[in-house]
Write a structure and sequence with these properties.
single chain; 237 residues; alpha+beta; eight-stranded mixed β-sheet; four-stranded antiparallel β-sheet
């Protein structure tokens, strides 16, 4: 199955939230990890404050919200400064229309938090979803032991070491020991099954069939890029 990324190095989803909202998000992840302890855990609703000069022109018709945004749980009366917020960069905002398309495909068991995106000047409100990956490195949908990684020298990009077929714990120890001078990027990434949408620890990727469905729905603002690594599906024993 061929995959594409929907994230470019020239595009960033910098999401900022208050310490209080960060704690609430972490709590909701805890509920999801311990779902058997709760009968009906519900997603947390966040309110996005866009009433700042840099964001007055946000186009809420886009399937994916780009650029920096400020998050708060209150109304538009309080002006938050970036320095007062904790960086929160492992998320992507999807429109309700795009979210509904994803429901027909195989996605990872991560979080989708419902968002109310309000423009206080125009008095409008739009429904979005924040895709919130649970893990930061050992994602359960990845088959690390069947993947191949490249250890690249940060000061000499031609200095590359291929690391293949290692258990997750061993790969993590190598990564921790060399994180100051080396970065680790996929060469061949193995998935446990044929997911159509996922965050692989590096970027957001979609399958070819999901890409076709998004394009057939007329969502021309979603841009697809070729991956610079191979994605394979783990073979069943």
């Amino acid at each position: 199955m061929k995959y594409y990324q929907i994230f470019s190095p020239d595009e960033y989803w910098f999401l900022y939230c208050s310490q209080e909202e960060t704690a609430r998000l972490q709590l909701d992840v805890h509920l999801l990890r311990n779902r058997e302890r709760w009968e009906n855990p519900e997603p947390i609703q966040l309110y996005v404050d866009t009433n700042v000069p840099d964001h007055e022109q946000l186009d809420f018709n886009e399937p994916i919200l780009r650029n920096t945004m400020l998050w708060s749980s209150g109304g538009g009366s309080r002006k938050w400064h970036k320095a007062a917020f904790t960086p929160f960069t492992r998320g992507i905002c999807l429109s309700d229309e795009l979210f509904k398309i994803l429901n027909d495909f195989t996605v990872t068991e991560d979080q989708f938090l419902e968002l109310k995106v309000g423009n206080y000047q125009k008095k409008t409100e739009n429904k979005y979803w924040l895709f919130y990956p649970i893990k930061q490195w050992n994602y359960p949908h990845l088959s690390i032991e069947n993947s191949v990684f490249k250890k690249v020298n940060k000061n000499n990009k031609d200095d590359i070491t291929i690391i293949k077929a290692l258990p997750y714990d061993e790969l993590l120890e190598i990564k921790k020991a060399h994180h100051k001078n080396y970065e680790f990027i996929p060469s061949v990434l193995s998935l446990n099954k044929g997911y159509d949408f996922l965050y692989d620890g590096y970027t957001f990727i979609v399958s070819a069939r999901l890409r076709n469905a998004i394009e057939e729905a007329g969502m021309t603002d979603v841009t697809f890029y070729d991956l610079d690594y191979e994605v394979i599906i783990k073979k069943e024993n």
